[in-house]
């Protein structure tokens, strides 16, 4: 049951991070879940503070997901801006 909660909370955190950044996450709902779970991993380096939902500390997870989306957006933009000769 905790795996299902992890998917749900990870998806919500990824979705919220996408809304805050104003960018679409590639991959739709799967991308949201991945961004939320990886964001919580990155946010884990910030510490364990704030409200906790199903093994996720919401605020550090959200900050980590925002950083992840910013990095992915930057990489996607730099890859899309190249022209082939």
From TrEMBL:
The keyword Membrane belongs to this UniProt entry's keyword annotation: yes
Signal peptide residues on this chain, from the entry's feature table: none
Keyword Cell membrane in annotation: yes
Family: Belongs to the UPF0410 family.
GO cellular component: plasma membrane
PANTHER family named in the record: UPF0410 PROTEIN YMGE
Subcellular location(s) of the protein: Cell membrane
Entry protein name: GlsB/YeaQ/YmgE family stress response membrane protein
Domain of life: Bacteria
Keywords (A to Z) from UniProt: Cell membrane, Membrane, Transmembrane, Transmembrane helix
Record Pfam families: Transgly_assoc (PF04226)
Principal subcellular localisation of the protein: membrane
Topological relation to the membrane, as annotated: Multi-pass membrane protein
Regions that span the bilayer: 6-22, 29-50, 56-76
